[in-house]
Design brief:
35% helix; 11 helices; four-stranded antiparallel beta sheet; disordered N terminus; Endonuclease I-creI; alpha/beta; single chain; 333 residues; 2 domains; six-stranded parallel beta sheet; Rossmann fold
């Protein structure tokens, strides 16, 4: 099975966009600090140097370098002082970098170092050091608190959200428990992309007995689908599905009852994602866009047997959202 591609790279609305991190004149490399011999640039490790295609599925560094990273590092080292800022074990990062970029020297930055100015060597640290720009996949450029935070939900938005979410179905505790058991055993929270390139998250229950799925449909609405197998000796595959915004109240209710157990963490992440959706048609703020992308990536990672890991977001007036190495070199060189 091919490794899953992070949704943040697939979905245009959640992909790191130019307007979310384009440097402005206030952080121009030529005007930041004339007293430095070389202007320092800070690089995140995962998603910038390390491809990180599956997210945090295990502590090991499992992927090859990002496309274009080797040539970009060599070009930038000729002009700037580079260091890697990472939450990983710095020694482990250096070992991976030495194997992936054997002709580029890497060095652990000693504790207490005020800044990194060593020419031709990439430093590695767990401490934030001064830099003209902090480049990473989970970066948000700070301009003002009004631009950073999403506005409160208006009465119109609330009414529309309540209409979409609908009312909680009236079921007995036994029926809720039965559906929760089906979700644990045969259900999944499936992120995907619709025809307009926007992310969605659906609840899907797969079962060979279409009568059970039709019963779920009678209780929770949604739709039932059937697909014949190529081998005629195999039973057809049937599944029930419903869009998350319409099923969110039911999932939350089953979580409160404790009837979703094996898929509890996926269900909690799904509710957090559905709860972050906006209904006014306005573009998401930077933090909300990253938040939604991370929820979907975490759910997908758990579906593939990995861990749900929500990455910390750095907010800084010199933050630069990483898109690709070509764009980074175009700006700094």
């Amino acid at each position: 099975m091919n490794d899953p591609i992070p949704l943040a790279r697939q979905i245009p609305s959640l992909r790191p966009l130019a307007h979310l991190g384009t440097p402005d004149a206030s952080v121009s490399p030529s005007s930041f600090n004339p007293h430095w011999d070389r202007q320092p640039i800070s690089l995140d490790f995962d998603g910038v140097l390390h491809e990180f295609s599956q997210g945090y599925v295990r502590p090991e560094i499992y992927d090859p370098p990002m496309p274009g990273a080797h040539d970009a590092l060599k070009r930038l080292l000729g002009v700037y002082a580079l260091h890697i800022l990472t939450a990983r074990n710095a020694t482990q990062v250096i070992e991976w970098c030495n194997k992936s970029f054997p002709d580029i020297p890497f060095e652990l930055i000693p504790e207490g170092t005020p800044d990194w100015q060593k020419e031709g060597v990439v430093g590695v640290t767990n401490v934030k050091l001064p830099a003209i720009s902090y480049i990473g996949r989970y970066m948000v450029r700070f301009t003002s608190w009004d631009d950073l935070l999403a506005p409160e939900e208006s009465h119109k938005e609330k009414a529309l959200r309540l209409k979409i979410e609908g009312r909680l179905p009236r079921l007995t505790d036994a029926e809720w428990g039965y559906i929760g058991g089906l979700i644990d055993g045969e259900g999944s929270f499936a992120p995907g992309i619709n025809g307009k390139g926007r992310a969605y998250l659906r609840l899907i229950i797969t079962n060979q007995h279409i009568e059970e799925l039709e019963w779920i449909q009678s209780k929770l609405k949604g739709s039932v689908h059937t697909k014949k197998q190529r081998n005629e000796q195999h039973f057809p595959v049937s599944w029930w599905t419903r869009d998350g915004r319409g099923i969110m109240k039911a999932v939350r209710h089953m979580l409160d009852m404790g009837v979703i157990r094996m898929k509890k963490h996926q269900a909690e992440l799904a509710c957090r994602y559905w709860g972050s959706l906006r209904y006014n048609g306005r573009r998401l703020k930077d933090i909300q866009a990253i938040e939604q992308a991370q929820y979907l990536e975490a759910i997908r990672s758990m579906n593939y047997g990995g861990r749900a890991f929500i990455h910390p977001v750095m907010i800084d007036d010199r933050a630069l959202r990483f898109t690709n190495w070509q764009d980074i070199c175009k700006y700094f060189l």
